[in-house]
Design a protein that fits this description.
The protein is α+β, with helices and mostly antiparallel strands. It is built from 12 helices and 18 strands. The protein is elongated, with a radius of gyration of 34 Å.
């Protein structure tokens, strides 16, 4: 996969459970609002129903009179029981008798359940570039339970439309979804869905579809894709959890430094080489990168070592941000980090606290206070182009007229 890497300052954390930040991505999506689905609902076989089926198999056929003699069940109850078994395709009524469909009855007796088919509807978002789909507002296992409704998406991005691909264009939606159902590539559907029903009015998929500009995070677990997209003047939430291929693409970019080539690209973005960097443990969604003196000196020429930052990993359609905490890898690098920490705190705490700020930075990074002289701090502020802080530190010396 082709991608580039850039360093970026001031990366905001994505929150608890975040494993990757989707800074920006273009996602082609086809929404089908009322897709007819066929459910195979299993109902437990009652003792009486089992008895009637076993009797029908053993006797070849059964009548109300035959069962009444054995059970004393009233005729109207038997009519209802036989009618239900006929509706399930297990018995066929011939005159006054009921004849078993032997193969279907034996399967039902083996499973201990009656299977009936019913139709329902849901909305489905199809992702043509990753050949997967996510269902919304569909039935869940259990009574009267449904998944959350589909997001309201009405306006595509300035990118407009993108091709859906030659293997998808021109196919009917039910054909596409039936194929995905067989391959278990439709997330959010219950396990009892057995068919996507066709519609006589459905139109073949055109050669292009709307593309949406999204941002958000990937959380651990499914993984969960908590995304947002602009719809007019509003931000609309869009949950694409279950789109595992799309998530895997983004996670590949987020884990780019696990590959030696990716580590080289990360080092180049900092202006150093990979042998001067060591990956540390990852905690709370932020990756730790340790720099030796040579790498820290090179990186500090481009930005402050005290700022929280990260890498933007950019491919043709997405920007994934990897949060990084830079840490010193040796004592000499620790002095550079301490100096940048003091420079950062000087802006918030004020020049009058410079002695305390330098002492605190030395303690934090375990370096002798003698390495953090005020003159060294002034030089670092010049390098960072923070001239106002330089003037604040030198005010008493440079502007002492009298």
């Amino acid at each position: 996969m082709s991608y580039t890497v850039e360093w970026t300052d001031h990366v905001n954390g994505g929150g608890e459970g975040v494993v990757a930040i989707v800074a920006e991505a273009l996602v082609p999506i086809v929404f089908w609002p009322r897709v007819t689905i066929v459910r195979a609902i299993d109902e437990e076989l009652t003792v009486v129903e089992r008895f009637l089926l076993e009797a029908a198999v053993q006797l070849g056929k059964v009548t109300n009179e035959m069962i009444e003699e054995i059970t004393d069940l009233p005729s109207e109850v038997l009519d209802a029981l036989f009618g239900g078994l006929v509706s399930f395709g297990l018995l066929v009524k011939e005159g006054g008798a009921h004849v078993p469909q032997t193969e279907e009855v034996e399967q039902t007796l083996a499973t201990g359940s009656l299977r009936r088919h019913s139709q329902d509807t849901c909305s489905i978002a199809f992702l043509p570039q990753t050949d997967e789909a996510v269902a919304y507002g569909g039935p869940l296992n259990g009574r009267r339970r449904r998944s959350p409704p589909a997001p309201s998406l009405s306006v595509a991005t300035d990118k407009g439309y993108l091709p859906v691909g030659a293997r998808t264009a021109g196919r009917r939606p039910s054909e596409i979804l039936e194929d995905l159902l067989v391959r278990r590539r439709i997330a959010g559907l219950p396990t009892d869905i057995v068919k996507i029903a066709s519609d006589s009015e459905e139109q073949p998929l055109p050669e292009t579809c709307p593309v949406y500009r999204v941002d958000g995070v990937i959380r651990d677990g499914t993984p969960r894709l908590d995304l947002r997209t602009a719809t007019g003047d509003q931000q609309t939430k869009i949950d694409l959890s279950g789109a595992d291929v799309l998530a895997a693409r983004w996670m590949y970019l987020a884990r780019f430094m696990e590959d030696p080539e990716g580590l080289e690209r990360a080092a180049a973005a900092l202006g150093c080489v990979a042998r001067d960097m060591v990956l540390g443990p990852k905690g709370a969604g932020r990756l730790e990168v340790r720099l030796n003196e040579r790498a820290a000196a090179t990186a500090s020429a481009q930005h402050s070592l005290a700022l929280p930052g990260g890498f933007n990993v950019i491919d043709a359609q997405s920007v994934i941000t990897v949060q990084v905490e830079l840490r010193p890898g040796d004592d000499a690098a620790a002095a550079l980090f301490a100096l940048d920490r003091a420079a950062a705190r000087l802006r918030s705490d004020g020049a009058e606290a410079v002695a305390e700020i330098l002492a605190a930075a030395a303690r934090e990074f375990g370096v002798p206070e003698t390495l953090l002289a005020e003159d060294a701090l002034v030089g670092r502020l010049w390098a960072l182009a923070q001239y106002d802080l330089v003037y604040a530190l030198r005010e008493s010396e440079d502007f002492a007229y009298g």
